[in-house]
Amino acid sequence: MNKKKQITIYDISEEAGVSIATVSRVLNDSPKVSRKTKERVLDIIQASGYEPNAFARGLGTGSMKTIGILCADVADIYLANAVSYLERELRKEGFQTVLNCTGYSYEAKKDGVKRMENQRVDAIILVGSQYIEATERRNQYILDAAKQVPVMLVNGYLKGNNIYCILSEDKEMFFEVTGQLLDRGRKNIVFLMREESYSGRKKKEGYQAAYAERGLVYDPEMIIQFNEKIDKVKGLLIEFYQEHPQIDAVVATDDELAVGALKFALQSGIEIPEKMEVVGCNNSVLSISCYPELSSVDNMCEALCVTVVASLMRVLEGSEVPVRTMIASEFVARGTTNN
Description:
single chain; about 40% helix
């Protein structure tokens, strides 16, 4: 056998006179292979210098020991942390991962899930609620994927067979945070959000419910959807403030948006937190990288991901697993609020 060429499982099976599934069983030390055959295959593998990949090992077991992870953008701090936690936990369980950063467009997300199915992974993890659309028809691609392999949703919810959702208490925490601001006399609270994701919608519902609970009416213009970086958020709010000088608080769906709001306030000479309070979300490194340090909702990203992997292992074992698991969030008060 020519050692200079790339040796494949097909080469090993041909020289040993066995099927590629048998070679895979040998690689996985399966008791279904006779000792004589196992020794012959292992001798050929050793002599050839063959290095098996996940595909080769998975053929004889029905498991590729590989999990597909999809996220919209790994440059996003929350998503990057989530992917890191998931990969760490999956390594502990002996699984490798295939990562696909799909971007935010609907077609790209659909295509990413389909491509992951074709990778013959054991399960698919969708990181972030950007994958959950507002209508059942647009979620059909996820329901279809779940007919092939288990689908785990990190902080998103979709009802369907073989779909398991682990979520933060986004609505509850934004209801609580907004309510605290209202109770301190802040009545003109800007709600800053990105896309209309499942999580974003829940956070907005919490904001709206806090006003309703107190018999107050919020100004719809105070809900701003803006999917941009810090400096552009600052610029947007500087312009917005010219027409809405009554702003006395900002609640943002992530820390990056909140830091943009903080920079706007400081540049505009607005005292934080005396004249304006600012709250972010995710309790990311950004929250302690600014001054004053940012108060933020900690949605327990690490706990979410640990629970996702633990639940997935039970699913793969055939155990009963709740289709919806809620993880409690908490508010971390720092220098941008009067707590």
